[in-house]
Specification:
heterodimer, A: about 300 residues, mainly alpha, two-stranded antiparallel ribbon, 13 helices, globular, B: about 300 residues, 15 helices, transport (chain A), transmembrane helix (chain A), cell membrane (chain A)
Chain lengths: ~300, ~300
């Protein structure tokens, strides 16, 4: 082989990964980087109206600095929305992951029956769009069509309004728990199956009960999966949009600004104030990033400590 | 590679040496607590599905008057009403969803395959940087993207088009991540090297040798993306105004919105919801054996 040929070959290999990554890079630039840059640009500007705001040139985009951010951070509606989502997440994340872990452990138990069927049934809601899930549950919450109210009525029990006040949080949380438990269960269950059989046998020989095995051996060994599912759940919670939006036609208690994302939508497309909407969106993105990275770091140092022990 | 399917993971009750030690009758005993817990969980998950199946059989008047779990008599009427609603726009929504999800997932899988393979097999400058930047995309709230995406699409005169819903979803950072861990596990470096020795081009090595090995992982990426696009609501909600282009999620939502003024539409919404659930559930039942779900947890063993 001449050196020229070898060079050309080496060059071909060198160029290949860049060529393979080209489509992803172009798409990332167009649909991720450019929009993010544009959103940041928008959030730092505002519209200045000259005179009556009529005619071309009367509306001009001018530098606003951090003004939009200051407005967003002091906006009581946004703050209230953030608190609502916080309360919602405080219910959804622990309940959903707790149930997912419980079901995964039960699937992994010895002598359990009907495991394949129940596993499929619990995973099924993952295939149902959030909007449709919210509709189905929404109807189940409606007194006129709900079987729950029918039963309560026959028993002569009081019938709480599930779509108002405190119960509304539970009603919304239930939709998320219903939709997300199965997916997380599968993730946790898969890593339970990855635990070597010797570990189980050793525990059994030591006379550990199933409960002890679960608490002392299985759960500690699936911590990485729990971290992953926790991480995805938090991101999903912060971005809750379609479920409360879907429930709106069924109740007056879900405002147009119930969650921060709904407020962003409202500002951008109903009020037409894209500048403050962009600022709010950037804040939500930053909170998501800070929370996720903070959480990942904490989780990483935990696992490293454990490995060191 | 067979170790990747979750199905193999069906509990090996009674076959482990630990349980075999007891006398025979004990082996047949059912673990009551786990079985009952799982049954309760399954009932909870099936409840709304069972409800929608029954509610779709009720006529408008039966919906509000008879007991919820009692089947009605109006199913065929409901379906033909849905069929007739605005000249069958419902079926247009279903076809749109199939197009968005099918084509979107296909393109997305192709892009993920190329990038995941490149990131797993080659050592090149900037590899980790590219990977980390792509991963950060997972964390981006869709709305921070959706608003400027909408405005940029508007600049390009592309809003309210099929492309406006399709294009932003083609690059899936999560898909790239999955394709990377899968190709790292499934494509041995020696085989790539052997292909080079034989003088095959890099593209040929990828399409002829690596791609077939990556198929099980790519099926998972495809299905994952298919579900993600089929379930998507925010992007079409923002981009589209012409309801002829709506996907099923957005179509049903607008139907429900109108239903709050005219309760007669509720039966349409319910029947529509049932029919919208069927294709994806059927897809799930058919392909569940091909999903390597443990890939989703990142727990790939080579």
């Amino acid at each position: 082989m001449t050196s020229a040929r070898r060079n050309r070959k080496a060059y071909g290999v060198k160029g290949a990964p860049y060529a393979f990554l080209l489509p992803a890079t172009i798409l990332f630039a167009l649909f991720f980087a450019l929009p993010i840059g544009y959103a940041i640009w928008l959030s730092l500007h505002k519209v200045q109206v000259k005179g009556l705001g009529l005619g071309s040139g009367a509306r001009k985009e001018v530098w606003a600095g951090l003004e939009n951010y200051a407005d967003a951070l002091t906006d009581s509606e946004l703050l209230a929305g953030a608190l609502r989502v916080l309360g919602y997440g405080a219910v959804v994340v622990p309940v959903m992951l707790g149930l997912a872990l419980l079901f995964a452990l039960m699937l992994d138990a010895d002598r359990v029956r009907l495991a394949p069927v129940t596993r499929l049934a619990i995973f099924l809601p993952y295939a149902i769009p959030g909007v449709v899930a919210a509709m189905l549950w929404g109807f189940l919450y409606l007194p006129d069509v709900s079987p729950f109210y029918f039963v309560l009525d026959r028993l002569g029990l009081p019938q709480p309004d599930l779509l108002d006040g405190g119960p509304l949080y539970l009603a919304l949380s239930n939709i998320a728990v219903w939709g997300g438990t199965g997916f997380n269960m599968i993730v946790i269950y898969t890593s339970l199956r990855a635990i070597p059989a010797e570990v189980h046998e050793a525990a059994k020989l030591d006379g550990a009960t199933p409960l002890q095995t679960a608490l002392r051996i299985k759960i500690p060994m699936v911590v990485p999966s729990l971290v992953l599912t926790f991480f995805f759940s938090i991101i999903a919670t912060l971005q809750v949009f379609s479920e409360p939006t879907t429930l709106r036609p069924l109740t007056n208690s879900v405002s147009t600004t119930w969650s921060p994302l709904m407020k962003v939508y409202q500002d951008a497309f109903r009020k037409g104030d894209i500048h403050s909407a962009a600022a709010t969106a950037v804040i939500i993105a930053l909170v998501t990033l800070v929370l996720s990275f903070g959480f990942l770091r904490a989780a990483n140092s935990r696992t490293r400590q454990e490995a060191a022990r | 590679m067979s170790s990747l399917a979750v199905r193999k993971a069906a509990p090996a009750a009674g076959t482990t040496p630990g349980t075999a030690q007891g006398p025979p009758p004990r082996r047949r005993r059912i673990a009551l607590v786990p079985t009952v817990t799982l049954l309760i969980g399954a009932l909870y998950c099936l409840l709304p599905v069972a409800w929608v199946v029954i509610a779709a059989t009720k006529s408008g008047s039966e919906l509000f008057s008879t007991f919820t779990f009692l089947p009605g008599t109006g199913f065929t009427q409901n379906v033909s009403d849905l069929n007739a609603y605005r000249d069958g726009v419902y079926w247009k929504w279903m076809a749109n969803s199939a197009l968005y999800a099918g084509l979107g997932a296909f393109l997305s899988t192709a892009v993920s395959a190329f990038s995941g393979y490149a990131l797993a097999i080659y050592r090149f400058r900037g590899r980790e940087t590219v990977f980390n930047i792509l991963l950060a995309g997972v964390l981006m709230p869709p709305v921070i993207l959706a608003i400027p995406q909408y405005l940029l699409m508007a600049e390009a005169d592309l809003t309210d088009s099929y492309a406006s819903v399709l294009l932003p979803l083609v690059l899936s950072p999560y898909g790239v991540y999955l394709a990377r861990i899968y190709s790292a596990a499934a494509v041995p470096a020696d085989i790539v090297e052997a292909g080079r020795m034989d003088g095959a081009s890099e593209l040929r090595i990828f399409t002829r040798i690596a791609l077939p090995m990556m198929v099980p992982g790519l099926v998972t990426v495809f299905l994952f993306q298919f579900v993600a696009v089929w379930n998507n609501f925010l992007l079409p909600y923002i981009m589209l105004s012409d309801d002829e282009k709506f996907p099923i999620t957005l179509g049903l939502f607008t139907l429900l919105e109108q239903g709050s003024n005219t309760p007669a539409l509720y039966t349409l919404v319910i029947t529509g919801a049932l029919l919208a659930v069927i294709p994806l559930v059927a897809l799930f039942l058919v392909v569940q054996r091909f999903w390597s779900l443990d890939l989703l947890s990142g727990a790939v063993k080579s």
